[in-house]
Specification:
By secondary structure, the protein is α+β, with helices and mostly antiparallel strands. It is 23% helix and 26% strand. The chain binds flavin-adenine dinucleotide.
């Protein structure tokens, strides 16, 4: 079924809480509904949204906003296990991937919760990232050392140009840091993700080597075992559910809750710079803070980059970019550190502010911020980071 409304209020459909309207809003329930939509006839521009958690609406939307309610989670293959017989022995499926098909309209964290409950590994580190499954495959969401591309098998789409259903193997999605073929200017807006097939696993495959995650998990295990010293059954054993629980706790401590304080998460991408540029930043930081001061950074060995510093995209749709590629070692510096060093942490500007606990996040502090206030703060941050470090920050949040 397709529901259409006009001059639809989008305030609750974007986590920034921008008070904007869409001239036309269409919501559909099934893959088949897409065939009935006359894309040529829609008021332009056309924007497909998920949970609106990576968007900054800069004004009322003059065209058509689409939203998917395709809402299913289905195990396609579970080792030797007959999926109609869900009570089969877990041990049968060990070392065999579990293919799970998930509708684009499913809230990504509901999928993570489902996987944790099923004891399936793969998406636990991505717990509590706002948004829906369709957008996760567009954005290549990532957190705590895992990107969704690591568990994507295939992305199923409706091609609005050719009016046909197509699918992309993970290699064809040209995934990079928060990037994919679906964001590439040639294809942007053309493909509507209908569902995604993920490869999860019943075999433990914890990824704990990011930041303080391991320490937090160990602390959580210890707390549990001291509290439940008599019933040591499941307690203290590493499970997707335990990792999920710890990650949700860490995220809640650090990030604003979208239902309470509007934001779109990390506003800027972490810049990737040359080793020489990093050395200059480091020596200036040591001069400012003392010789023992350490600038947070990640070395990226032999990554293939375009001259603009973007990740090189593999596979058929990206081949045209390979002629400009150079292979080099680069350094990723947290944008949050740069923003903090420029004195922005916790600062307010009208209704907008830089989040006190995570300076990479710009928030709708008053709940009534205008898009201009968010954009004004964004521009001032970009200018001061450029002036202090000579680095160009680029927004991760999509301005529409
Ligand atoms: C508090 C907070 C924390 C966050 N933390 C993280 C984090 O840790 N890691 C991370 O990666 N991101 C994070 N984000 C950003 C955001 O959650 C992700 O980018 C998420 O994938 C956006 O999903 P969405 O459904 O809200 O998509 P939207 O914001 O609605 O859309 C994002 C893009 O996807 C496109 N799109 C949406 N649905 C479809 C579809 N079905 N078919 C084709 N295109 C589609 C849209 O056109 C748009 O280009 C955070 C955001 C917030 C508010």
């Amino acid at each position: 079924m397709i529901r259409t409304s006009y001059y639809q209020d989008l305030t609750k459909m974007n986590t920034f809480g921008m008070k904007v309207k869409a001239r036309c809003f269409m919501e559909y329930d099934s893959v088949a509904d897409l065939v009935d939509i006359e894309f040529e006839e829609l008021a332009r521009p056309v924007l497909h949204i998920g949970g609106g958690s990576n968007l900054l609406f800069t004004d009322d939307f003059k065209g058509t906003v689409l939203h998917s309610n395709i809402d299913f989670i289905e195990i396609l293959e579970d080792g030797n296990c007959d999926t109609s017989e869900r009570h089969c022995e877990r041990s049968v499926a060990i070392s065999t991937p579990v293919l799970v098909s998930v509708g684009a309209g499913v809230v990504f964290d509901d999928f993570c919760a489902w996987a944790a409950k099923e004891g399936l590994w793969g998406v636990e580190n991505l717990s509590y990232i706002p948004g829906e499954v369709g957008a996760s495959a567009v954005q290549n969401i990532g957190a705590y050392g895992v990107e969704v591309k690591d568990v994507i098998h295939k992305v199923y789409c409706y091609d609005t140009l050719e009016e046909e259903f197509v699918n992309f193997d993970v290699e064809e999605c040209c995934y990079g840091y928060r990037d994919s073929i679906f964001k590439n200017s040639e294809f942007k807006g053309r493909y509507i993700v209908t569902h995604v097939v993920f490869t999860l696993s019943r075999d433990p495959r914890p990824v704990l080597d990011y930041g303080h995650l391991k320490t937090e998990i160990e602390r959580c295990c210890e707390e549990h075992s001291s509290r439940h010293s008599e019933e040591r059954s499941d307690v203290g054993i590493l499970t997707p559910a335990l990792i999920r629980k710890v990650i949700i706790k860490i995220r809640k401590e650090k990030l604003p809750e979208p239902s309470v304080v509007g934001s779109a998460g990390s506003f800027f991408k972490n810049p990737v710079i040359s080793l020489e540029h990093f050395a200059r930043i480091e020596s200036a930081a040591k001069a400012e803070h003392g010789p023992d001061y350490k600038v947070p950074h990640y070395i990226i060995e032999n990554q293939t980059l375009t001259p603009h510093g973007e990740d090189q995209l593999p596979s058929r749709h990206c081949e045209e970019r390979s002629d400009v590629a150079i292979s080099t070692t680069t350094v990723k510096v947290p944008a949050a550190w740069m923003i903090e060093q420029c004195g922005w942490k916790g600062r307010r500007s009208g209704g907008a502010a830089v989040w006190e606990k995570q300076p990479l996040v710009i928030v709708n502090y008053t709940g009534n911020a205008y898009p201009e206030e968010i954009i004004g703060l964004e521009k001032r941050i970009i200018a001061s980071v450029k002036a202090k470090f000579g680095v160009d920050l680029h927004p991760e949040v999509e301005h529409v």
